[in-house]
Each structure stands twice: as structure tokens, then as C-alpha cells.
Amino acid sequence: MLILAASLLIVLSGCQPAGVQDLGSGIPEAVGVSSERLERLDVAMQGYIDDERLSGAVVFVARKGQVVYHKAFGERDRESDSAMQNDSIFRIASQSKAVVSAGIMALQEQGKLLITDPLAKYFPEFTETSVAVRNDEGGYEVVPGRRPIVLRDLLTHTAGISYGQGPAKDRWADAGIQGWYFADRSEPVGDTVAKMGALPFDAQPGERWVYGYNTDILGAVAERVSGRPLDEFLRDTILDPLGMNDTHFYLPESKVDRLATVYSTSESGLERAPDPGHMVGQGQYVKGPRVSFSGGAGLVSTASDYARFLQMMLNGGTLNGRRILSRKTVELMTVDHLHGIEFRPGQGFGLGFYVIEEVGARGVPGTAGEFGWGGAYHSTYWVDPAEELVVVYLTQLIPAGRIDDHSKLRTLVYQALSD
């Protein structure tokens, strides 16, 4: 009788038993969130739309495994007057990195690689690497790499590899490898990565945090280790088990009318970004060659799909009874690995995510242990384990200008917590 009564109470309250975290719809107050205070987020987001600083966006907030806020604002496409919907699909750019990093960790759990392995084990082209060092004449000299690059260097962005914009950018330009956009390439990503091995990098392995092609290289490693294209490997290992049915490298024709249009901030207001093919514009996610799978920036997704991935991480590697990663792997991914390498105030970097270490040094609301990242199209996300909080914010704005929506979103999410 007591068990039956307890179960009934759980159903009536909209809560789930402790440990069951599968992103069900919940009453905000049942999980310590104020519905009244969440309305402030409505006002702020609509203000950006009304002021034409954003075309549209989707905000997703879950606490303790319950969705307490999931709303769309503005328009998916201004020219056709198409409203943004909760299931609109966005280019998530560098949010792809966390998914691919998790895929690499899954391969380690399967015994197929170690993150301490040298990259040259999978791409011999990286057996002897080089670094471009600026000289006093305004040019650069090329020196040998002091040690082999290992997979962990790539996961932490300490391999010294940028997006081809460092001292030797002329060599990268000559090789046709610059910028983070790969969807227009008609060669497999592994072929592109192999060419990188002969180019000078920006820093010695393990000496600096350098953002660049690291996760694209990891995606190519995943292809070679798994023996499958990256899209198939991720689908079988992460996407399908988590029910991320709207996450793709290239969109099926049936979903094209759900893809959000990219806009840019200009002096005259919002403008539609270049179309087609420009790396910061509409891209070729619909009509591209569909050959190159960019692990660093290639995925499209929805807010709810990406939240399922993050909830899995928050749960210690499992969602809805499906285990993707072990608890210990998740712990390893979400602690600082930089060991004093300069990054950002109050933040370290783990295996695919930033990690908050000192809230005061960072200077914005949050909690030590929080992890997250974002994407080039002005999207962002974070997970706060102490608050059992998942937040996903998707929009399509590049360049974004001086808009303060990320900071306001963070403040308004935390001010709505009521316990």
C-alpha cells in the first residue's frame, strides 16, 4: 500500500523517482523552478526578435530530468515568413565536437583505441610534424615537432593545430585547407586530414590551447578505427541509441523545410547570409556532395535532440536505459586537462568541453563543475551537474555583433531556480 501511494504521488507531482532522468515534460515548480520567473525569459527573447537583433531562436531548459522550458521565438526564415518551431533544425557547427569526442571515448571503452595513442598510429602522415615559428622579419621558420601528437592532445585542443590561420597560413591556403567548413568538399575527410600532416602547425604539442581542426581529425580517426563513415559510426554508437533522430551531417529531403536560415548582423539590421556554399552562410547541408563528414563542425540538430545527448552526459553516460558511456569516462571528459596551460578566466578544458573551476574568476552565474561549449552560428549550451540543469540555445546568426543574448539567457535561467 505504501509503495502504491508513493508511486501515485510521483505521478501526480510530475516528478520521476531519483535516478530516472529521461527528459520528460514536467511542472517547473516540481523540480525547483519558478514558472513566473521563467516568463522573464519570454520577454527578453521576444525583445531580441522585436528589435530585429535575432531572426529566431529556440530555448530548451531541463532540470532534474524534466523539461521546464522549450520555446521557439521569431522566424525560421524571414523571407518566406516561416515561423520558428521547437523542432526547427539548426547548423550546430562546433557543438558537433562534443558528440564526436564522446564517440572517440566510446571507441576507447570498446578497446579499439587509447586516447594516449599517437595520432601517427592511425595517420602515418603525422609521424614527423612541424611547427611554424614567427621570426623578427615578419615571416616564420619551420621547426620540428618536439614530440608526437596523441589523441588526448586533439580532445583538449592542445595539439597546436588551428584552422589554418597561423603563421604558416600561406601553406594552408595553398593546400586548400582553411576555415572550418567541409560540407562543400568532394573528398572524404580522411583524405583532407592526411594532407594536414605535411603542413606546419601553430604550436608544439601540449604547450598551448589552439582551436582548430582537432575534432575533424578525431572524426577521421573514428572512421579508420571503426571501419565505417563517420555518419554511420555516430548513428549506431550515439545518435540512434539516444533517439537523436533529427541530427545529421546532411539533411534528408523530407526535413529541408525545417532548416533555419542563417542571418548576419549588419549596420542596416539583419541580412540573409550568403547562399550557397560560403562557409559562414547557408552551406551545403542540403545539396552538397555529402562526402565529407566534419567531426568538428558538420552536424545539424534540434534543441531537443542535443539536450538528449547532454542529459546522457549529466546522467553519467546513460539515458532511458541505454548506456552510451561509463560513468568514469564521463567524469574524465568533464574535468580540466590543461594543467596550467592558459585558457579563459575561471575555466579549464576537458575532453570536448570547457569546464568551470572558479565561478568568481569567470564572473557570470554558474557552478563549479559546469561544462559546455557552443557553435559558430551563435548557439550555446551548458550542463550544470550540481543543479541537475541542461540548457540548449540554438539560433543562426553570424557574425553576431554585440548582442548580449547569451549572458542574458544564463542570468534568466539561474534566477528562475527556486530551491
Helix/strand layout:
Layout: H1 2-13, E1 24-25, H2 35-50, E2 56-63, E3 66-77, E4 82-83, E5 90-91, H3 96-109, E6 130-134, E7 140-144, H4 151-155, H5 169-174, H6 189-196, H7 214-226, H8 230-242, E8 263-266, E9 269-272, E10 300-301, H9 303-314, E11 318-319, E12 322-323, H10 327-333, E13 347-349, E14 354-356, H11 359-362, E15 371-375, E16 379-384, E17 389-395, H12 405-415
Parallel strand pairs: 1-3
Antiparallel strand pairs: 2-3, 2-17, 3-4, 5-10, 6-7, 8-9, 11-12, 13-14, 14-15, 15-16, 16-17
Helix pairs in contact: 2-12, 3-7, 3-8
Task: Describe the model.
This protein is an alpha+beta fold and 419 residues long. The chain has 2 domains: 22-100 and 246-415, Beta-lactamase, CATH 3.40.710.10; 115-231, no CATH class. Helix content is 29%, strand content 18%. The strands form 5 sheets. Strands 1, 2, 3, 4, 13, 14, 15, 16 and 17 form a 9-stranded mixed β-sheet that branches. The longest helix has 16 residues, at 35-50.
**What count of structural domains?**
2
CATH architecture of the largest domain: 3-Layer(aba) Sandwich
What best-fitting shape do the alpha-carbon axes yield?
Answer: globular
Query: Would you count the extended β strands for me?
Result: 17
- Calculate the mean pLDDT score and round it: 92
Helix content: 25-40%
Biggest sheet layout: 9 strands, mixed
Strand content: 15-25%
H/E series = HEHEEEEHEEHHHHHEEEHEEHEEHEEEH
Q: What is the highest CATH level, the class of the largest domain?
A: Alpha Beta
User: Strand pairing plus helix content: what structural class?
Assistant: alpha+beta
Query: Mind telling me the CATH superfamily name of the largest domain?
Result: DD-peptidase/beta-lactamase superfamily
